[in-house]
Design brief:
This protein has about 475 residues and is mostly helical. It has 23 helices and no strands. The protein has a domain of about 80 residues.
C-alpha cells in the first residue's frame, strides 16, 4: 500500500460520503427510513465496486477492461478492508472520554430497568443464535458453529463491532463470518428503524405510547439531516488556544493515549495468560481478543485521571463526538464497500435464518417482556432498548425521539446511564469480543449453557425485582 494509494482511498471515501449525503437529501424514502448517510455511501461504493458493477462488466468484456473492478481500483479496496479494524479502536476509545462518570448508585436508580432489559436481550441473542448453530446451521447447512454469535455481534454491536472483529474471524478460521456479520448489521439497522416505527404506531393506537409526536415535529430539513441556519450549534469547544495547540490535535492525542493504555492492558493480559492458565489448561483466549474493548477501558482510565488531575478540563465531549463520529462514518463506509456478496450468497439460508430469528427475539422481548420488567414508561424506555438491540445506539435514540420527543419520560436519561453498565460487557464490549474465542476453545454447547444461565438470571431479576415495582 503506497502513500499515494492510501491518500486516493480516503479521497474516494469522501467522494462517496458526499454523494451519499446528497442522495439522502433528495430521497424521501431514505429520509423516512432515517437511513444514515454512511450506510448509503457504503452501499453505493459496494454497487460501483468490483463486487457488483465489476462482476457485471466482466460478464460482457475481457479481463483487462478498465471497469472490470468497477470504479474502485483493487488497491483502494485493499486499503478500505484494513480501515474498520483501525477505526473501531478510535470509536470505542472515545465512548467515555469527556463524560462526567456518575456514581454506579445513580446509574442503577435511573437506568437500572434498562440495564437489565438490555443485558437480557443481548444475552438472549446468544442463546437464540447458538441454538440455531447447534441444531440447524452446523448440522444441516454446514456453517461454522461460531455463527451462533453473529446476531449479538451484528445487531447490538452494529457495523463497527462486526467490522472490528474481522481479524478475529480470520484468526479463528471463520473468514466468511466477517462478511455475514456486516450484512446482518445492515439488515439490523433497516429492520430496527422500520419495525421500530411500526411498533410505535401500534403503541400509540393501544395507548402505550402517550408522548408520540416527534415524527410530525421534524421539519423537512430535519428529515433530510440538515440543520437549519438559525438552529446550528457549535461542533466543539475550544479548550486550548490554537496558537498554543490546535484543540482537535490535542483531543486526537487523548484518544491515542486511551488506545495505547488499552494496548498495554491487552498485551499484559496476553502475557499473563502465556505464563498462567494458558499452559496449565492448554487454552488461549486473549491472543484472539481484539484491541477495541480494551481501548474503551483505556478511555475510562484516561477520563478518570483527567477528572482527578486536570483542573482546566481540557477534554471537550463535543470535540470527542466529532472524532468518534468521523471514525464511525469511515468505518461503516469502508466495511460495507468491501463486503463479499459471494460469501453471503453461499451462506444465504443461514444468513436469512439468523436475521429473522434475531428480529423475532427482539420484538418478543419488547412486546412481551418489557412491560413485565420495566415498572414505569415501559414503552418509551423499551423502544430505545429495542432500537439498540436491533441496530445501533443511534437507532435507539431515534426511536425514543419519535416516541418521546419532548423527553417527558426518564427514557433518554436512563438510556444514557445504561451504556455505562452495558457497553463494557456486551454490544461490542468484553464478552462480545471474547465470544468467538470462547466458542472456538470450548465449543458452542458450553457457551450456550453459560449464555442461557446469564439470560435467565437477568430475566428473573427484571421480573422479580423491577417488575414488582
Amino acid at each position: 500500500m503506497s502513500p499515494e494509494m492510501i491518500g486516493l482511498s480516503f479521497i474516494l471515501l469522501g467522494l462517496f460520503i458526499v454523494i451519499g449525503k446528497w442522495i439522502r437529501v433528495f430521497s424521501p424514502l431514505l429520509q423516512k427510513l432515517f437511513l444514515p448517510t454512511s450506510i448509503i455511501a457504503g452501499l453505493l461504493a459496494l454497487v460501483l465496486g468490483p463486487e457488483i458493477l465489476g462482476r457485471i462488466v466482466a460478464l460482457f468484456t475481457s479481463d483487462d477492461y478498465i471497469l472490470t473492478n468497477g470504479f474502485v481500483p483493487p488497491e483502494v479496496v485493499e486499503v478500505w478492508s484494513e480501515l474498520p479494524g483501525l477505526f473501531i479502536n478510535i470509536v470505542f476509545a472515545s465512548l467515555f472520554l469527556g463524560k462526567t462518570l456518575p456514581s454506579l448508585r445513580k446509574v442503577w436508580i435511573i437506568g437500572g430497568p434498562q440495564v437489565v432489559m438490555g443485558q437480557m436481550v443481548s444475552w438472549g441473542q446468544y442463546v437464540v443464535g447458538l441454538l440455531l448453530a447447534v441444531f440447524l446451521l452446523a448440522p444441516v447447512f454446514g456453517v461454522n458453529p461460531m455463527a451462533g454469535a453473529l446476531i449479538e455481534i451484528s445487531f447490538v454491536g452494529g457495523h463497527g463491532t462486526a467490522a472490528g472483529l474481522s481479524g478475529t474471524f480470520a484468526d479463528l478460521g471463520f473468514e466468511e463470518g466477517a462478511d455475514l456479520a456486516i450484512g446482518l448489521a445492515t439488515i439490523g439497522i433497516l429492520t430496527g428503524v422500520v419495525v421500530g416505527i411500526i411498533l410505535i404506531n401500534w403503541g400509540a393506537r393501544k395507548g402505550y405510547a402517550k408522548e408520540v409526536g416527534g415524527q410530525q415535529g421534524l421539519s423537512s430539513n430535519g428529515r433530510n439531516g440538515i440543520v437549519e441556519l438559525e438552529n446550528r450549534d457549535s461542533a466543539g469547544e475550544l479548550t486550548t488556544r490554537p496558537e498554543s495547540i490546535e484543540p482537535l490535535s490535542l483531543h486526537i492525542a487523548y484518544v491515542g493515549i486511551a488506545i495505547f493504555i488499552g494496548f498495554i492492558l491487552l498485551e499484559g493480559l496476553i502475557l499473563l495468560e502465556a505464563f498462567t492458565w494458558g499452559p496449565w489448561t492448554d487454552t488461549y483466549l486473549m491472543i484472539y481478543v481484539p484491541l477495541f474493548p480494551l481501548a474503551m477501558v483505556g478511555g475510562i482510565i484516561t477520563q478518570l485521571i483527567s477528572d482527578k488531575y486536570d483542573k482546566f478540563r481540557l477534554i471537550d465531549r463535543k470535540m470527542i463526538n466529532r472524532i468518534s463520529g468521523f471514525s464511525l462514518d469511515v468505518l461503516i463506509v469502508s466495511a460495507l464497500a468491501t463486503v463479499s456478496l459471494t460469501v453471503i450468497g453461499d451462506n444465504l439460508a443461514a444468513f436469512v435464518t439468523l436475521a429473522v430469528a434475531g428480529v423475532v427475539w427482539n420484538v418478543f422481548a419488547f412486546v412481551v417482556l418489557a412491560p413485565k420488567m420495566i415498572p414505569q414508561y415501559w414503552f418509551e424506555r423499551g423502544i430505545g432498548d429495542f432500537g439498540q438491540a436491533t441496530g445501533i445506539t443511534a437507532t435507539g435514540l431515534l426511536l425514543m425521539k419519535v416516541a418521546d420527543p419532548d423527553n417527558k419520560t426518564p427514557a433518554l436519561e436512563g438510556f444514557g446511564y445504561k451504556q455505562i453498565m452495558f457497553e463494557p460487557f456486551v454490544g461490542g464490549g468484553l464478552f462480545t469480543a471474547a465470544s468467538l474465542p470462547l466458542i472456538f476453545q470450548f465449543g458452542p454447547v458450553a457457551v450456550l449453557i453459560f449464555a442461557t444461565i446469564i439470560t435467565i438470571g437477568w430475566l428473573l431479576f427484571g421480573l422479580l425485582y423491577f417488575g414488582r415495582k
